Amino acid sequence: MYILRVCRGMQNCWRSSRAYEHFCKGAPWTLAEKILYTHLLNPAVDLAGAGADPSKVRGARYLRLGVDRLAMQDASAQMALLQFMTCGMSQSAVPASVHCDHLIQAYEGAQADLQRSLETQHEVFAFLESACRKYGIEFWRPGSGIIHQIVLENYAAPGLLMLGTDSHTPNASGLGCLAIGVGGADAVDALTATPLGVACAESLGRASAWKAVAVVLGQGCDSAPDGRAYRAWRHRLHC
Questions:
Q1: Is residue 85 part of a domain?
Q2: Which whole number is the average pLDDT over 34-55?
Q3: Cβ neighbours of 73 (radius 10 Å)
Q4: Which of 12, 97, 220, 222 is deepest in the core (most CB within 10 A)?
Q5: Residue 60 phi, psi (nearest 5)
Q6: Which pLDDT band, with edges at 50, 70 and 90, does 51 fall under?
Q7: Averaged confidence pLDDT in the chain
Q8: Are 131 and 85 in contact (CB under 8 A)?
């Protein structure tokens, strides 16, 4: 039932978007594509001439998107914030958060490891907290929890387009949003409301109902062993 509510909420957001009304009505778009297209800053430019034909968009268009939220972990947030400080802005352009978890290394146990991190990484944590306070960014101090669980419980929501400076950021997509892992430069772009530019992925085809994840991943690796092909599977949800 939760999945059905997520899908219905996303459908309502999609059908009220400019992209749907003027360019995409009547075409079989995937959930990921619907989230992307509802965040297009200028659908008239990025989808011009596509009509309702997915084949004219997938693998053929470059999209410029507005991001809803940014999450950063302590190891990668440092350089992003240092660069942001040179932009002359008084606060982040989008809701953002910094999570202090990656610099806590596991050796003995939770309390001992946390205390060691507080001592050895004191300067880093102090800088991150000060920068977050100055620029209106939420700060999750050491011991608050793992970034991905905090994002799931506090920030992820159906239809959201968010970025995170960690390769596991897509974990949040399980709640119906589109969460993408990025590097520090893209994080600074999000903080300054610079459009996120992405190439629209090609389609590998439709995965059969309830195909095992390992099978889908294996087929994707077989078709692109060098890791350069930018393609996606389409999957129909059966409820």
A1: yes
A2: 79
A3: 22
A4: 97
A5: -125, -15
A6: low
A7: 81
A8: yes
Structure token pair of residue 229: 């092909």
**Which of 21, 50, 54, 20 lies closest to 37, judged by CA?**
20
Q: Is residue 42 within 8 Å of residue 53, measured between CB atoms?
A: no
Q: Which CATH number fits the domain that encloses residue 162? A: 3.30.499.10
Cα dihedral across residues 79, 81, 85, 89: positive or negative: positive
Q: Interhelix angle for 31-38 vs 2-15, to 10°? A: 40
Element spanning 162, H or E? strand 161-164
Residue 239 has pLDDT above 90, yes or no: no
Please count the structural domains in the chain: 1
Tokens, residue 133: 């306070």
CA-CA distance, 15 to 21, in Å (whole number)? 7
| pLDDT of res. 4 | 56
The range of the structural domain enclosing residue 79 comes to 69-195
Q: What is the pLDDT of residues 204-222, one digit of tens each?
A: 656 555 555 555 455 545 5
Q: Look at the block and give the residue holding tokens 């950063």.
A: 72
Asked, for residue 124, whether it belongs to a domain, the answer is: yes
Residue 13: CB atoms within 10 Å: 16
Helices 122-135, 74-84: crossing angle, 10 deg rounding: 50
Instruction: Please check whether residue 11 lies inside any domain of the structure.
Output: no
In a domain, 232, yes or no: no
The arithmetic mean of pLDDT across residues 28-39, rounded, is 82
pLDDT tens column, 58-87: 777 888 999 999 999 999 999 999 999 999
**Does position 225 have pLDDT exceeding 60, yes or no?**
no
